[in-house]
Structure formats: C-alpha cells, structure tokens
Design a protein that fits this description.
- The complex is a heterodimer of chains A (379) and B (331).
- By secondary structure, chain A is α+β, with helices and mostly antiparallel strands.
- In chain A, 59% of the residues lie in helices and 13% in strands.
- Chain A has helices spanning 2-20, 25-35, 37-54, 56-59, 162-198, 200-214, 218-228, 235-250, 252-266, 269-276, 281-318, 329-332, 339-344, 351-373, and strands at residues 80-82, 88-101, 108-119, 121-131, 135-143.
- In chain A, the strands form two sheets. Chain A has a three-stranded antiparallel β-sheet, with no helix packed on it. In chain A, strands 4-5 form a two-stranded antiparallel sheet.
- In chain A, a hairpin with a 6-residue loop joins β2 (88-101) and β3.
- Chain B has helices spanning 2-28, 34-44, 49-62, 69-83, 96-129, 136-150, 153-167, 188-225, 228-235, 240-278, 283-292, 296-324; strands at residues 88-89, 94-95.
- The relative contact order of chain B is 0.14.
- Classes of the chains: A alpha+beta (379), B mainly alpha (331).
- Chains A and B meet through α7, α11, α13 and α14 of A and α1, α6, α7, α10 and α11 of B.
Chain lengths: 379, 331
C-alpha cells in the first residue's frame, strides 16, 4: 500500500516536472523556424542588407555623398592576388584605371594601369561621416591609399561608387517598404478585427469595401497616384506619400485573414468567459483576440514587404517614384533605361542584385515564418 | 444558377462604377482644370497667348469643364458609353478613345497569350512535379519558381533588351513587326516575325505566371492524390498515369480556374512593365507617357480600362467555375 503511494507520488512528481519543462509558444516557433534552412538564410540576407544600409558610411570606401565628375562610368575594379608579372601577393590589391579616347568614335576605353598596385587596407581612416546622423567617425571597412581608387561595382554617371550607393539606397528602399507594410498592417488589422468581431451590417459593408479595393489593378493605380505627388515636394513628404500609396492597396489580404481568424476565435470558450466576466469590447479585442492573430499578421507583414520593394523599384526606375536627393535601388538603375548608356556600361545594373537579395530574403523568411507561426500543426 | 450569374454581374457593374469614380478622381485631382493645363501646354509649344486662351475656352465648352463635378462625371461616362469618347489628349491631339481603340487589341492579345501559355505550361509542370514530391525535379522547379517571382520584371526586360540589342546586334524589339511585314497580309512568315518581336514580353510576363500556376497546381494535385477515391483507383490496379490524368487532375483543376482571377492582373501588370521598358506600342507605354506629361485624360481612361479588363476576367473566371463545378454554393 505504502509502496503504491510512493509510486503514485513519484509519477505525479514527474508530471509536475514535465509540466515545468513545457516550452513556450515562442520557443516552439523558434524551434520550428530553425529547422527550415531557407528561412534562416532569408533572415540572414535581410539582416545583412539592413546592416549594410544603416552603416553604409562604414562599408563604403569613399564618402557616400561624394560626386566626382572626373570618375564617371569607371568599370568595376578587379581585386587581384596575382600581379602583372605573375607574382603572387598574399594581400589583395587593385590597379587604377586609366582611360583612352578613341579619336574617331570618341568611345572611352578603360585600361588597368599596371605600373602601380594599390594594396587593399582594412579598417582605414578616410572621409569623415556621422553614423546615424549623430556619431562622428572616419573609419572605413576597406580602402586604398590615394591616388588609388577602389570601386568594386564601378561608378555611375555622377562618379559615385555603386557599391556604397547601393548600400545607402537600402535605407530608403527597406525603410519605405517596411513603413508602407506597417501602415497596411494597421489598416488591415483594424478593419479585419472590426469586421470579424462586430459582424452583421458592419461586416457586410467592410467586406464589400475590401472587395472593391482588392478589385483594383495595383500597379496602374500605384503609378497614377505616384505621378500625382508633386515634383517640388520635400523629401519627407515624398517618402510618406509613397509609403501611404503602397499601403493603400496592400491591406486587403490581411484584413481578410484577420477577419477569418477573429470570426473563428469569437465563439471560443475563453472569449465567451471573458464576456461573461463583463470585460469590455476593447479589453476583449486587445487582450484576447488580437494577440492571437499576431503571428499571422507578422507573417503577412514579411510577405507584403517584397511586393512593395518590387513596386517601389519599378516606379523609381521610371522616375515617378522616389526622386533625388533621396536614393533607392530603383532610382540608381534609372540610367539603365537608356540602351546606349547601358550598352557601354553594363555594370550600372548592379543594384538589381540588392533588389533580388531583398525580395528573396523576405520571401524565404516569410515562408519559414508561415510554417513556424502555427507550431501545434503537424508538419 | 441564373440568379447567381445575375447577382455576380450586378456586383461587377457596381464595382465598375466605383473604378470609374476613382479614375475620374485621378483625372480631377491635379490642381487647375484640364483647359488651363492645355493652355499652358500650347504656350510652351510656342502658340500665341490669344490662340491658346481661345483653344482652352473651346475645350472648356466642348467638355463642359465649367459645370459642377458630378455633372462632369456623368457626361464623361455618357461620352464613353454612347460615343466611345474618353476625353482629349494634349500630346496626340485626338480623343483618347481612338488611342485606346488602336492599342487595346494589342494589349489584350499579349496578355491573353501570356495567360494561355503560362496556364498550359504551369498546369503541365504542376502535374509533372506533384507525383515527384521532394524529388530532384520538384525541388528544381520550386527553386526556379521562387527566383522567377523574385526578380523584378523590369530588370529582366532590361537584360533581354541588352542581350538582343548589344550582344546579338539584333533588330529593334520595340514594335510588333519588322518593317517589311507591317502592312503585309497574315502569312506564316508574318506570324513568325511577330513572335520574333514579342517573345521578351511573353517570357517576362509569362514566367512569373508559370511559377504561380505551378505552385497552385502542385498543391491541389497533392491534396487530391491523398484522397480515398484515388487510393481506390490505385487498388483497382489502374496504371499510375491513368490514375493521375483521369481521376486526380480533373478534380484539381477547379482551383486553377478560380485562381485565374488573380493571375490575370499579374499578367496585365507584367505586360505593362515589360512593354514600358521595351517600348512596345501597347497601352503600357501610353499610360507611362501620359503620367510623365500629365496628359491626364489618358491616365484616367487607361486606369479605367485596366480595372475593367481585370474585373471582366474575374467575372468570367467566377462564371466559368460555376458552370464547371456544381458544388459551388450560389450564395
């Protein structure tokens, strides 16, 4: 008898211990997220692009605001390990380019000046800058001694280093898409919750409205609205206006998802219990309903961003989106529209790489998050 | 069934009116009315002040720009419905309706061709990869379709243009035909020549659509292949190819039909993007040009056209689905 009781208490002890070891929701999400390699890679890609954008001054060998009309359209400089005489160097170096002009066609030819090699130095001081607009500094990740230059992706029409400029352009491209996506999330959540929670006439009206907005052709309307933003407006207004334009049409998917989720949760026991205890609508919505839809909201946020990045780059590429002095990946590619310029300077296509990396990164990340957001479902 | 079709058409009609209102707002949103802008445009073109003012007044009377906004909207819609008049284009000096009539068939032709190709290819590939779940070809197409949907379409257009014009020293691709075929009657050679010109658009707009259709078809087919009647068909001893093609595929196709409603906008936008970069004379470049020149009647009218086309596509997909699948609830 006593033996049995000890056994029983032992099992109950084990049960208690097991309960303590239960993993929290976020641990479960993280565990499932970690399993998918693609989403880890996607997350890393996004993170790297963000770091490059924020610390663009540090990653660019020259000042990112530099305009040098002496060095326009320099092709990408190749990083060498083996010099002109066939000797191997342990530390990489670059040669400067010198240009020759064809006297007949005025075509510019760039050739490596192999007389002097410029070894690449890391963490060297150069042009001073203010990190995040506050912290002064002059350290650069890499660079070469003057008069050497190092343009690993070449330069554009204004003689700007395309690598540094592309890093910097990420600031606008990423922050605008994030900002636009967040606005659309807020609008979509409010309408979705209202529609699902209150139901009836409100639901009917909101659903018809959502259908109406979803029926619109996104790209043409974005283009038409972006073209209406006055050319003379200041940078901040342009930024906010563009973000709002993108948000205007992207909230419909989210509103539908949130509505569906709220509809299914509305009749569950814990919501009914909260109602019975006399909780106000606001409390039920903000404490009980909305947090339960949050994982889906975050997934849709990550999947909305790439769409905005693609649209923004196309509009800026056409010259009806972001305008100077702001800079985005699409705007950097503006000169590629001229087939003559592109034909002679193919490297000005470089910002495409950043756009593709960002879109792929967010897509991978969103895909992984979608699987992980519901960790209780069977794989 | 009939009442369902009727209701769908009524809803589409109201949506069309809504799209019309938004397009009209786009036309009316810029400061000043169209006549003052036309006046400034004429002055910039070197007309004398008097003649410009006169032309502007004429335009204002002709289009009733001095009337209240709702009346203007009503007469705009009336003009479109009864006379096919969409408004006046400054740059082309003719009615936008004529421009649309010129370019709409080409746009529709391209978009529908892209749509057709991407549906056939996407569904075919979906049927091909679904039985090979997580196999080499499945992963291969999964990665490829991820990439297709991630590369900005305008940059594919630039790269194709670069290859054709610079590397291959090819003919210009900003037209539908080579000069010798422009007014020639339809022959086999003319069709070949046309495809030699429009293949970049088909690739740019089509590839993304192929990827989307493939993903949807694969998912559906996998769902269906897991159901019991498929197991029954297999246990009867039917060949696997017969099981898939005769029993599984027809039941997986419904979602593809429903999905066409979202593929069509994607095609139209792909066509828009590619045609603008390549300069193909469809509605796309006209739309872009009008936005840059703020030739606002073209912008508004084309926006309306795009909206109407997509709406029509959705409506057709819905109706077709209702005919195809009797399980659809008509509510």
């Amino acid at each position: 008898m006593s033996n049995e009781t000890t056994k029983l208490s032992a099992t109950s002890n084990i049960m208690i211990i097991e309960q303590e070891q239960n993993e929290s929701y976020f641990q479960l999400v993280w565990r499932r997220f970690r399993r998918s390699r693609a989403s880890i890679v996607g997350g890393l890609m996004v993170l790297i692009l963000m770091v490059l954008a924020v610390f663009a001054d540090f990653f660019s060998p020259t000042s990112i605001s530099q305009i040098d009309l002496q060095s326009t359209f320099i092709p990408p400089q190749i990083v060498h390990f083996i010099d002109h005489d066939g000797k191997f160097h342990l530390f990489p170096f670059v040669y400067n380019y010198i240009y020759t002009l064809d006297p007949k066609t005025f075509k510019v030819y760039w050739q490596e000046d192999t007389s002097k090699a410029y070894p690449i130095k890391f963490f060297i001081s150069g042009a001073s800058y203010k990190l995040l607009g506050i912290v002064p500094g002059n350290l650069h990740l890499y660079g070469v001694d003057k008069p050497g230059t190092i343009y690993i992706l070449g330069t554009d029409k204004m003689g700007r280093d395309l690598w540094g400029k592309s890093c910097e352009a990420g600031r606008i491209s990423l922050s605008m898409s994030l900002f636009g996506a967040i606005i659309s999330i807020v609008v979509g959540s409010v309408l979705g919750v209202a529609s699902g929670y209150y139901g009836g006439t409100i639901d009917n009206i909101l659903q018809r409205f959502t259908e109406f907005v979803a029926a619109f052709p996104n790209l043409p309307l974005w283009m038409a609205l972006a073209a209406l933003v006055p050319k003379t407006a200041d940078s901040f207004t342009v930024f906010v206006a563009m973000a709002c334009i993108f948000a205007l049409l992207s909230w419909t998917t989210l509103a539908r998802e949130v509505r569906g989720k709220v509809l299914s949760l509305r009749e569950t026991d814990f919501i009914l219990a909260a109602k019975e205890m006399g909780a106000s609508d606001a409390r039920i919505i903000f404490r009980h309903l909305y947090p339960n839809t949050l994982s889906h909201v975050i997934v849709i946020l990550t999947l909305t961003i790439p769409g905005v990045i693609l649209a923004e780059s196309f509009l800026s590429f056409l010259g009806i989106g972001i305008t100077e002095p702001l800079i985005s990946w699409g705007l950097l590619m503006r000169n590629t529209q001229d087939i003559q310029t592109l034909g002679q300077n193919a490297w000005i296509l470089a910002p495409i790489g950043f756009i593709i990396a960002a879109v792929l990164g967010f897509n991978f990340l969103g895909d992984g998050l979608r699987d992980a957001a519901d960790p209780y479902a069977a794989m | 069934m009939l009442s369902y079709i009727f209701r769908r058409i009524i809803i589409a009609f109201f949506l069309l009116i809504g799209i019309g209102i938004v397009s009209f707002i786009i036309i009316k949103l810029p400061p000043g009315d169209f006549a003052t802008r036309y006046q400034a445009y004429l002055l910039a073109q070197g007309a004398t002040g008097d003649s410009a003012l006169h032309a502007a007044q004429l335009l204002r009377q002709q289009y009733g720009l001095d009337q209240p906004i709702p009346v203007q909207f009503f007469s705009w819609v009336k003009g479109i419905v009864t006379e096919g008049k969409f408004g006046f284009s400054m740059a082309y000096r003719k009615d936008v309706g004529e421009l649309i009539a010129e370019r709409l068939p080409k746009t529709l032709f391209l978009a529908l061709l892209c749509h057709f190709i991407s549906t056939v290819l996407g569904v075919g590939l979906g049927i091909f990869v679904a039985p090979r779940k997580y196999g080499f070809w499945d992963n291969f197409w999964a990665i490829l379709s991820f990439i297709f949907t991630s590369i900005p379409r305008f940059s594919i257009a630039i790269i194709i243009m670069y290859i054709v014009v610079i590397d291959l020293k090819g003919h210009s691709i900003n037209s539908f035909f080579s000069p010798e075929y422009v007014i020639a009657p339809w022959t086999w050679g003319r069709i070949v020549d046309m495809f030699a010109h429009i293949w970049p658009v088909l690739i740019i707009a089509g590839l993304g659509g192929v990827a989307r259709n493939l993903r949807v078809m694969r998912g559906n087919l996998l769902d269906v292949l897991g159901s019991q009647y498929v197991q029954t068909a297999r246990s009867k001893g039917l060949r696997e190819s017969l099981v898939i093609l005769r029993h599984a595929v027809p039941n997986a196709l419904h979602t593809i039909v429903a999905y066409q409603g979202t593929v069509l906008p994607y095609m139209m936008q792909g066509e828009l993007e590619a045609a603008i970069v390549l300069g193909l004379p469809t509605m796309g470049p006209l739309f872009y040009e009008s936005l840059v020149n703020s030739d606002i009647y073209i912008s508004g009218s084309l926006l309306l056209m795009y909206g109407a086309l997509i709406l029509m596509g959705n409506l057709l997909a819905d109706l077709f689905l209702a005919v195809l699948d009797p399980r659809i609830r008509y509510s």
